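Self-study notes.
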Amino acid sequence: MKLHQEVLILFALTVLAAAGTHFLHPRAPAWHEADESLRDDEITLQHISQTWKNDVLWIDARPSALFGKAHIPGAININEQELESQLIDNIAVLQDNRKPVVIYCDSSACQASRKIRDYLAQRLPTEEFYVLRGGWSAWFQEQQR
């Protein structure tokens, strides 16, 4: 009986360690994203690379402090907290843009990119606005490979 309890305890600790690693590790895969189909306004890094050879206008919807630490090269920062001032600062780039616009925030759980996308799509002449599936996390993980 004692051996049976030890096996159950060891099994429970193993499951706990595996779950902790999955949820806390910065490069843990987002399993739920693999099964979900893309929303109409979403796009993947693979599609961006294959279709446009990464020649898009990147908009980082994260707070300025995170943008200042790291961002996709060439991205501009337009976030909810400073929307009006950042829009004015970047209006020439946005109005002259003829490339697809890809907006990202931290991850798929973050909705800031979708809010910025909807806001800009109503106000700018560009027709192609997309949200990067997986956000900054997906792009950063791809760069680590």
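Second protein, same conventions, sequence then structure:
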Amino acid sequence: MSGRPVKHSVTLKGHRTSISLEDEFWLALRDIAAERNRPINALVAEIDVERGADLGLASALRLFVLQDLQAKLARG
């Protein structure tokens, strides 16, 4: 893992789009999607719908991963 963002394509609203995130975030998103029994595209689409217009998708995904981790730590 280099720490450099890696582009992956996802389908949102029927259109392919590329998102650049560090490998660690992609791995975390895949884990979260698996925990929720959802395809990663569905999880990313849900996050995309819920984010504000002033927040980029990559930032929204990073914040989602952080919030998921914080929730797990709070549960112990």
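Instructor comment on the second fold: Helices lie at 23-35, 40-50, 57-75.
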